[in-house]
C-alpha cells in the first residue's frame, strides 16, 4: 500500500525569485536596468563586438540629471565619440512635440525637457542614470515634415539600432503619455507572490517545483501595444540589448541573458522568451571568424545562408502580423534586417522582400485567415507598394513563406522547381534598394493552364474546374478575400514539385487585361500529382481565355507577372 504525505508550499525556489511590491519604484527599476547593462557589457561574450565609431546623423545631447534642457546635435558638424542609446515607442493618437523644419533651430539651441512627452522625459532620465550622454529618438532626430530627410534616415534605421549601446522600449505604453515606469500602473496580483512547492513523500523521490505563472509562458510578460507595431520588429531584432518597460514589470533581453523583475538573475531554462528564435539573430549576423579553406565546398557558407533565409521567413511572418501607421513603410520597416542578411548570401539580390538566392520558394507565400486582432480581411493597399508576386503587396494578414530546402535541389526529399525564371526586375522608388519600390516584373517559363475557380453552393468549399470538364475540391488561398466573387477565370502555374508527398505548389494568376500574357498573382493552391501530371499538360486543350507571351507547343509558356 502506497503511503502519501502532504506538500509544503513556501518561498524556496530553485531559481531566485523577487516578489513585486509597491516599494519597487522608478529608482528600483533604474538600478536593476543599470545592473543588467553593466553585467552584459563586462561579462557577456556573445554580446561583445568591435567598437563602432558610427553614429546617427542627429542625436540628443542630454547633459547631467540636473539639467532641464536637451539639445539636438548634428554629428556632421560636431564629433560624437561616446555611446548612445535608442528608444522604441508607440506614437499613438496623442499629439506631442516633434522635430520639424520649424522646430529645428530651437532643438539645436536647446529645449526644456518639460516640453516633451512623458515617455521621452522618462527615456532621458533613464539614459542619464545609465551614464549615457546621448539619446536617439526617431521623432526628435528625423525631420518629420521632410520627405527627403525621412527617406535618407529611414534607410539607416537598422544601423541606428544596431550600433546603439542598448534600446529602451516603452513596451507597455500606447502613446507618449504612458511613460516608461510601472509604479503608476496597476500591478496584477498573480504576479506579486511567486512560490514553490516542496514534496515530502515517504516512499518517492522528493523535489521542489517552482509554480510557473502562465502569464510568463504565454508571453503576457511582454505583451503590450509596442509589440504590435511593425517598425518595432526591426528595432528589437537589430538592437544588441533591449530593456522593456512593460505594463507589469521590467524585462531584459540580450543574446546571452533574459531576465525580469521576478527573475532578476535570469529566466528559468524552460521559459521561452517571446520571439526567442528571432532574437538569436543578434549574434548570428555578427561576422564569424572561420577558415573557409578547411571546409569542403564552402559548406559553412551554404549552411549559414540557409540559416539566414529561414530567419528571414520567420521575420516576415512575425512582421506581417504587426501594424503600420503608414502603408508605404512595409518594406522600409525591414530594410535594416535585409541589409544585415545580404552579405551572408551568395546571391544577395533583393526583390521587394524576396531574395534572389531563394526566389522559387519565396514566390510560394500565402496569407492565413486573420484573427480578430487584425483590422479586416487581407487586402491590397490603395497606393502601389509592391508587385503582386511579393508578400509586401498584401495589406493585412499573416504571411507564411513557402517551404524551402536545406540542401541543394536534387535530393528526392526536397522540392524541385517546375518553372524557369527568365527575368526579374524591381525599380526602387528611392536610392535604397531595400526600401520602397516603384514597379516590379517577373518573367517565367513553365507549364501554364486555364482553370475556373468557383464555390459549392451552401457548403463554401472551393473548387477548381479544369478545362470546363474536371472538378477538383482543393485547398485554395486567395491573396485578397474580396477577389472571390462567383466563378473566376484564372491561369494556374505549378512552381514547385514536392515528390515526397506527390503534390505541386501552384500560383493562381489573373490576366491584367493590359497586355497579352501579363498577369497579376491571385492566390496560392496545391495540386495532387494524381489529379494532373505536368508531363500530360501538353495534350490539355485550354479554354478560350488562355493567353501567354510565347508557347513552345509542348505545354510550356512564357509569361510575365507584375
What radius of gyration results from the CA coordinates?
27 Å
Number of strands: 28
Estimate what percentage of residues fall within beta strands.
Answer: 15-25%
**Arithmetic mean of pLDDT:** 82
What is the helix tally?
13
Structural shape: globular
The main pleated sheet reads as:
12 strands, mixed
Portion of residues within helices: 10-25%
Whole-number total of structural domains: 2
Could you walk me through the main structural features you see in this protein, from its secondary elements to its overall organization?
By secondary structure, this protein is α+β, with helices and mostly antiparallel strands. Strands 17, 18, 19, 20, 21, 22, 23, 24, 25, 26, 27 and 28 form a 12-stranded mixed β-sheet that branches. Strands 5-3-2-6-4-7-10-11-12 form a 9-stranded mixed β-sheet, with helices on both faces. A hairpin with a 2-residue loop joins β13 (350-351) and β14. The longest helix is centred in the middle third of the chain and has 22 residues, at 299-320. The protein is globular. 37% of the residues are buried.
Provide a compact summary of the structure.
This protein is an alpha+beta fold and 562 residues long. The strands form five sheets. Strands 17, 18, 19, 20, 21, 22, 23, 24, 25, 26, 27 and 28 form a twelve-stranded mixed sheet that branches. It has a nine-stranded mixed sheet with strand order 5-3-2-6-4-7-10-11-12, sandwiched between helices.
Question: Secondary-structure map with pairings?
Answer:
Blueprint: E1 7-10, H1 26-43, E2 58-61, E3 69-74, E4 84-88, H2 104-109, E5 111-112, H3 118-129, E6 134-136, H4 138-141, H5 147-154, H6 157-163, E7 167-169, E8 196-199, E9 208-210, H7 214-217, H8 230-238, E10 242-245, E11 250-254, E12 257-260, H9 276-279, H10 281-284, H11 299-320, H12 335-341, E13 350-351, E14 354-355, H13 359-362, E15 366-368, E16 398-400, E17 416-417, E18 420-428, E19 437-447, E20 449-455, E21 462-466, E22 470-473, E23 476-478, E24 488-498, E25 503-511, E26 518-528, E27 550-551, E28 556-561
Parallel strand pairs: 4-6, 4-7, 7-10, 26-28
Antiparallel strand pairs: 1-8, 2-3, 2-6, 3-5, 8-9, 10-11, 11-12, 13-14, 15-16, 17-24, 18-19, 19-28, 20-21, 20-24, 21-22, 23-26, 24-25, 25-26, 27-28
Helix pairs in contact: 6-8
